[in-house]
Design goal:
This protein is mainly β. The chain has one helix at 5-9, and strands at 15-18, 26-34, 45-51, 60-66, 69-81, 84-91.
C-alpha cells in the first residue's frame, strides 16, 4: 500500500498508537498540509498529530500504528496549546 497524501487525508481524525510506547496513549491526525516543493512532480506534504498526554515525545523516529497503517515516521514536537502537544511529520 502506498502511504501518500490521499491515504492520510482519509485518516484525518483517526487515532494512532506508538509501537513500544502504548502507555503514552494515542496521537490523533488533525491536519494534512501541502508543502511548496522546489522540485516539479514532488508530492510534498506534512502531517500534524495532537496528543493530550502531558509528557512530550522527543524528536525521533517512531513506529505508528493506525487504521490500515504501520510504518516509521520521524516526529517533531512543534508546539503545545490547550488541546495538547502537536507533532509534525514531513514527506518530500
Amino acid at each position: 500500500m502506498e502511504y501518500d497524501r490521499e491515504f492520510f487525508k482519509s485518516c484525518l481524525g483517526k487515532k494512532f498508537s506508538i509501537e513500544f510506547h502504548e502507555e503514552f496513549g494515542h496521537l490523533e491526525l488533525v491536519e494534512v498540509s501541502d508543502l511548496n516543493a522546489s522540485l516539479p512532480n514532488i508530492d510534498a506534504f506534512s502531517l500534524v498529530f495532537i496528543s493530550k498526554n502531558t509528557a512530550v515525545l522527543g524528536q525521533q523516529t517512531y513506529t505508528l500504528k493506525g487504521p490500515n497503517y504501520k510504518n516509521d515516521l520521524f516526529l517533531v514536537p512543534v508546539g503545545r496549546d490547550e488541546q495538547g502537544t502537536r507533532y509534525e511529520a514531513v514527506f518530500n
